[in-house]
Amino acid sequence: MDVKCAFLHGVINEEVYVQQPPGFEDKEFPHRVMKLDKALYGLHQAPRKWYETLSSHLMENGFKRGRIDQTLFLKKKDKDLLLVQIYVDDIIFGSTSKELCKEFEAIMQSKFQMSSMGEMNFFLGLQVTQAQDGIFINQEKYIKKILKKFSFEDVLSIRTPLDKAHKLEPDESGKPVDQTYYRSLIGSLMYLTASRPDIMFAVCLCARYQANPKESHLQAVKRIFRYLKGKAALGLWYPKDGNFELHAY
Fold first, then answer.
1. What is d(CA 128, CA 200) in angstroms, rounded to the nearest whole number?
2. pLDDT digits (tens, 9 = 90+) for 145-182
3. Domain Reverse transcriptase Ty1/copia-type, which positions (predicted)?
4. Is residue 249 part of a domain?
């Protein structure tokens, strides 16, 4: 679900003045400035004011805000539960009841101009596949994108993200590498760990050396990309029913 012109709904309390847009000047007072009543795109206050407007509307309609994640809103009705997650002007929601979903759509459309995107299959770089027995989340498209970005499309794949035969540690005598390039590689991999816990340890280990990366550290990062080349389709599977146990090592 997407809110059209979301930031324009925020009401600002501060005094903000703008010049008259070229071609739309007041003929009587062409040199005067205008005081804003509502937020505009580009204002520092705009995202916050939009969030305040939206959260107030939801809470007025029976929603409760999450204690830890304050962009998560919940609403209970009898035994059913409705969850609403907000990311700026994009909204995803799900419920144990179709009626609650319809009720939420009506609540939003009563105040904002909305466009419904249908069943979610992509959100913030995450691919979402919904099946009868569960939900699968992965980032295969994102992996292909970063492989292309850093020219790793034609590298040979490898079975593990980390070489256990060689311990990664500070390499004082090693050849320095470009710090900006190294950090860019690490940043791209960190975003990927949202759906790939199998690379989490290797990425965090390589991230320790961003301040003074050496050739040995860069080779370790490249190994992670080689691993991803052959394992791009892996992701997280959340089963609908049955015992779901989380194992960590």
1. 20
2. 999 999 999 999 999 999 988 899 999 899 999 999 99
3. 1-162
4. no
